[in-house]
Fold this protein.
Amino acid sequence: MLNKHDTIGQDLVNHCVNDIAVCGASPLFFLDYFAVGKLNFDVAEQVMSGLVKACKENRCSLIGGETAEMPGLYKKEDYDLAGTIVGLVEKRKIINGSKVKRGDILIGLPSTGLHTNGYSLARNVLLKKFKLVTYIPELKTTLGEALLAVHRSYLKPIKAILSLDGVHALAHITGGGIIGNTSRVIPKHLKLNVDWQCWERSYIFQLIQKTGNVPEEDMRRTFNLGIGLVVIGSSKHTGAILSILKKMREKPVVIGTVM
């Protein structure tokens, strides 16, 4: 609709990188799968440029992929993009959440937008009132550009704090929201206490909720609400974790505790 496809390639790579980085792994190789109804070379070039850009930024080799033209399965303008990533981590350094305990602190790092999740709800709500080219003053850009904001990589801040013994778990906030994703990386007998008022939500989420009168529970379950990564660390290491992240010009915020 906007004929902008490079960010989608970046989204895919960064999403995959984050998914393995939270386990302590560094990315090595990436492969893509690009399926189309009819191959459009301009679109394919844009998608590929995004894949290449993100792989370079994450120091990950793009070693190959597959392009499949399937007119009987996809419409002419439609395409499907998928990726496979391979990373490396020493067995003794795998982060599996087993060290998480009561009293640990939740530290959130900001997202850049929807981060490839919740688009069905966002489109259903926003496109009934706005056009993608509508300029939204609070967003300081058009709606379309805001929705296509690149899903950022958290590889660098993750690697920077992994030297600390006090980092007990990491959660990449995707579908399922903060609770859904963070709950999966802590022992089952523990719970999360999140202070939902302690950070300012990105305006794109405020716009979605206000425009569609979306219940708070649905917002929390569907979107990252401005927090794309959660670091779970011991309370005595909180200061050190925050200090490292701030030196990297990140904007970490303590968003809760483990109970």
